[in-house]
């Protein structure tokens, strides 16, 4: 199984994006989540990365990297959900 390490994550007015060290980029529209779609821009920008995803503490929302990249057709689903990961 190929693993992809997250290099960077960023947001704009409508989406969250993630890029891996090998150049894959996936995005999700905020409109897919009620909490993110109704959050302020400041709340959307207030996130931190965990090993397996993104957490927005002000709105208590999480997104897994594997789910994001699987939805984009860029990785396979695994039992451990660790095909795409973040490590400092």
Task: Characterise this structure.
- It is a single chain.
- The protein has one domain (4-85): Uncharacterised protein PF10387, DUF2442 (NE0471 N-terminal domain-like), CATH 3.30.2020.
- A hairpin with a 3-residue loop joins strand 4 and strand 5 (53-56).
- By secondary structure, the chain is of the alpha+beta class.
- It has helices at 34-38, 41-45, 65-71, and strands at residues 4-11, 15-20, 25-29, 48-49, 53-56, 61-64, 84-85.
- Strands 3-2-1-7 form a 4-stranded mixed beta sheet, covered by helices on one side.
- The model has no long low-confidence stretch (mean pLDDT 95).
Uncertain runs: none
Which structural class matches the secondary elements?
alpha+beta
Strand content: 35-45%
The number of E-state strands comes to: 7
Computed over alpha carbons, the radius of gyration is 12 Å
Gap between N and C termini: 22 Å
Q: What's the number of structural domains?
A: 1
Portion in helices: 10-25%
Biggest sheet descriptor: 4 strands, mixed
Overall shape: it is: globular
Level-2 CATH architecture? 2-Layer Sandwich
Number of H- or I-type helical stretches? 3
Q: What is the overall pLDDT average?
A: 95
What order do the helices and strands follow? EEEHHEEEHE
CATH class descriptor: Alpha Beta
Strand arrangement within the widest β-sheet reads 3-2-1-7
* The CATH homologous superfamily: Uncharacterised protein PF10387, DUF2442
The name CATH uses for the topology is: NE0471 N-terminal domain-like
